[in-house]
């Protein structure tokens, strides 16, 4: 370690060059039919008995392992924190998570009010500019009557129109029975109820048969 950073790097580069040359010779021996020393040869170990660390075929020996930028290559990455389960995540979810308490902090409402005033001021200014432009062109400005009711508007049951004295008169679009027709319908209904209550089945059958013959 006392040789200095540059001397250590040079020595480490020289060792790696010799290792590459050794690898070429081992490959040539295999081509000539000899043993494959790259496969059966012993592993390179340091003085502690650990395999020599390397990166992409380049090995680091001795003090070269502690050089700046080299130590970080072989440091183990920290273990990632354990992931929370769905049940643990749901424990921290409350109304505030969904934004229901955003207005309770006293910050959002003043911002919204300020923005609302700004938008209203811009809309009023735009309306004034358009109004002045219409007046400059000589166009007469017609005030819109927001309370005016068009002729097409009507109720669900029927339309309305005003009479001569200013009173509203309702016009029905469906036939409305008179009082006499209502009384006659009630009498017929009462007769049918009495017949069904007191008349015998034979009499009812005869009455129905008579109605059929008469075409009623």
UniProtKB/TrEMBL annotation:
Start and end residues of each stretch annotated as Disordered: 133-176
UniProt protein name: ISY1 factor
Sequence ranges of Basic and acidic residues compositional bias: 157-167
GO CC terms, sorted: nucleus
Organism of origin: Eolophus roseicapilla (Galah cockatoo)
Chief site of localization: nucleus
GO BP, sorted A to Z: generation of catalytic spliceosome for second transesterification step
Keyword Nucleus: yes
Compartments where found: Nucleus
Keyword Transmembrane: no
Encoding gene per record: Isy1
Cross-referenced InterPro entries: Helix_hairpin_bin_sf, Isy1, Isy1_sf
